[in-house]
Recover the amino acids of this structure.
């Protein structure tokens, strides 16, 4: 594909805004830093520019340079996390299709808006899927058939609580504490009342909250040399794990049972 000619500084700023929005969309969808850099550089090549990105914990800094040494540096605040692997795949495909077919900036912006504006799926589907998956973990860990329904219920109610708290802007860490506490209480009280395996009930009740995506991306970032981004993601994941542990600890104290 032929690189597009940039006619003015206004064009460069518009390209810069689009690329920063694209990088932010990739970041919040749940991918590693190196993939963000590759996709943005691929698109910048299409527009006849060179993009250099600095990924900070809460911001993206990008300097866009043309062949005529005209440059613009822009900063974009990173949006709240919203893992979506379908959207992530579509954004990656867009970067390849744009380069292969020589899309104009307007065409790229239109297709990008279409991807980002896709109708959100009902929260019930992931809630049910996560609840079923957590029940399966309970069974794998040796939980009895009588525990599975309550693990399912505790996970589902915990998911709904976390979702509502996040919608009310309570914050990620407090939301995880409350969700872990409720899920563990439901499973733990049921196990105590019906004399089931309380250890397994409490241990598996909060597994659905483990932040797998931030943990995986942090490790990939560290191994690929994006130390700052990797450590920021790792610290964020550790904060969430500590929040889960705190919620579980409160539940154990309330129930008066140890899982050790």
């Amino acid at each position: 594909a032929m690189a597009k000619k940039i006619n003015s500084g206004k064009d460069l700023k518009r390209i810069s805004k689009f690329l920063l929005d694209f990088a932010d969309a990739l970041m919040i969808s749940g991918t590693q830093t190196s993939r963000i850099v590759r996709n943005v550089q691929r698109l910048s090549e299409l527009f006849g520019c060179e993009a250099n990105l600095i990924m900070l914990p809460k911001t993206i800094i990008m300097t866009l340079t043309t062949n005529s040494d005209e440059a613009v540096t822009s900063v974009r605040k990173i949006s709240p996390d919203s893992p979506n692997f379908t959207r992530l795949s579509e954004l990656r495909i867009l970067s390849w299709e744009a380069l292969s077919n020589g899309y104009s900036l307007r065409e790229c912006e239109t297709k990008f808006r279409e991807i980002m504006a896709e109708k959100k799926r009902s929260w019930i589907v992931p809630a049910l899927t996560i609840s079923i998956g957590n029940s399966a973990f309970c069974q794998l860990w040796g939980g009895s058939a009588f525990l599975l329904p309550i693990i399912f219920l505790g996970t589902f109610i915990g998911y709904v609580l976390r979702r509502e708290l996040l919608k009310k802007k309570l914050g990620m860490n407090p939301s995880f504490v409350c969700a872990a506490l409720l899920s563990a209480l439901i499973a733990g009280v049921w196990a105590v009342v019906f004399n089931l395996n309380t250890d397994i009930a409490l241990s598996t009740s909060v597994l659905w909250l483990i932040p797998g995506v931030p943990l995986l991306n942090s490790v990939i970032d560290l191994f690929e040399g994006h130390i700052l981004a990797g450590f920021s993601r790792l610290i964020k994941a550790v904060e969430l794990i500590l929040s889960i542990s705190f919620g579980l600890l409160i539940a154990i104290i309330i129930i008066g049972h140890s899982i050790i």
